[in-house]
């Protein structure tokens, strides 16, 4: 059997890119195949009687690894979000919030785009690479399609508001974990309450399930109007396909057009 040719650097990078590995998480490469250095035996503890009042020193933890325990992070996100009186305050709060590890691998917070006075708010799942670079939601390929979709019912970003459930890009665009979603949920819920739109549109399964509290798939939930309690009032909410899904399955654009027409009708009423 002839051995496989060694891939070129370009082929290797193309392979990584295909797999979603498109950014460096650290300044120095880590060889994870290297044998670990033998760990020196810990020094014998000093007899407690020598210094009974002083607690043992905490081991140094790199800042990027500081994360709060899941339940505490969810509780702290809830408390923080609840106290944000304005969108600016909410953004500042999220910029300083340390309870979600995604923040440490993302380049920046992707808060929102569009007009906060708009009557309609669209909510997607999480930023991708382009959004992470620009700091705005839906600016990549699926964002371009979203722009065309809303243009078809006479909207643009000056007449709509756009955000995501998760405001930090998951590394390599991986699916956010349920715990990451739970930690970020209070922020987007408060975000919706502060924007106070007449119509909320969830884009795709993850944002629909997180915000509309359903376990059903998008095929069943899309196009059905439900009441969403913002905390201050009840607004009309509807799910439709995520534009990234429509890019992969263009035959569903027909159903998405039905959803968009229904949204335009409610906005006109
Ligand atoms: N997909 C999303 O769900 N949100 C974005 O901002 C971009 C792509």
UniProtKB/TrEMBL annotation:
Q: State the SMART domains in the record.
A: UDG (SM00986), UreE_C (SM00987)
EC assignment: the record states 3.2.2.27
Question: What family does the entry list?
Answer: Belongs to the uracil-DNA glycosylase (UDG) superfamily. Type 4 (UDGa) family.
Reactions it catalyzes: Hydrolyzes single-stranded DNA or mismatched double-stranded DNA and polynucleotides, releasing free uracil
Q: Which organism is it from?
A: Bradyrhizobium quebecense
Q: Which residues form a coiled coil?
A: none
- PANTHER family according to UniProt: TYPE-4 URACIL-DNA GLYCOSYLASE, TYPE-5 URACIL-DNA GLYCOSYLASE
Q: Which Pfam families match?
A: UDG
Q: Which residues form the Uracil-DNA glycosylase-like domain?
A: 111-261
* UniProt xrefs under CDD domains: UDG-F4_TTUDGA_SPO1dp_like
Q: Which UniProt keywords apply?
A: 4Fe-4S, DNA damage, DNA repair, Hydrolase, Iron, Iron-sulfur, Metal-binding
Q: What is this protein called?
A: Type-4 uracil-DNA glycosylase
Q: Where is this region: Disordered?
A: 28-61
């Amino acid at each position: 059997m002839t051995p496989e040719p060694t891939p070129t650097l370009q082929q290797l990078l193309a392979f990584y890119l295909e797999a979603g590995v498109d950014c460096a998480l650290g300044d120095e490469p880590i060889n994870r195949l290297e044998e670990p250095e033998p760990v020196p035996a810990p020094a014998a503890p000093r007899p407690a009687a020598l210094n009974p009042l002083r607690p043992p020193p905490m081991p140094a933890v790199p800042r990027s690894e500081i994360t709060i325990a899941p339940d505490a992070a969810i509780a702290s996100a809830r408390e923080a979000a609840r106290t944000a009186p304005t969108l600016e305050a909410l953004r500042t709060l999220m910029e300083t919030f340390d309870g979600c590890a995604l923040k440490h691998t993302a380049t920046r917070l992707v808060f929102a785009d569009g007009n906060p006075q708009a009557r309609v708010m669209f909510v997607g799942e999480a930023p991708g690479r382009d959004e992470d670079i620009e700091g705005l939601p839906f600016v990549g390929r699926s964002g371009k399609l979203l722009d065309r979709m809303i243009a078809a019912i006479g909207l643009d970003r000056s007449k709509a508001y756009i955000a995501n459930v998760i405001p930090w890009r998951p590394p390599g665009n991986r699916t956010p974990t349920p715990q990451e979603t739970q930690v970020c949920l209070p922020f987007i819920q408060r975000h919706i309450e502060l924007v106070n739109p007449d119509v909320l549109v969830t884009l795709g399964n993850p944002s629909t399930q997180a915000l509309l509290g359903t376990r059903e798939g998008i095929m069943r939930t899309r196009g059905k109007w439900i009441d969403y309690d913002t905390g201050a009032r009840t607004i009309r909410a509807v799910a439709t396909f995520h534009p990234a899904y429509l890019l992969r399955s263009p035959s569903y654009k027909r159903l998405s057009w039905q959803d968009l027409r229904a949204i335009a009708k409610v906005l006109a009423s």
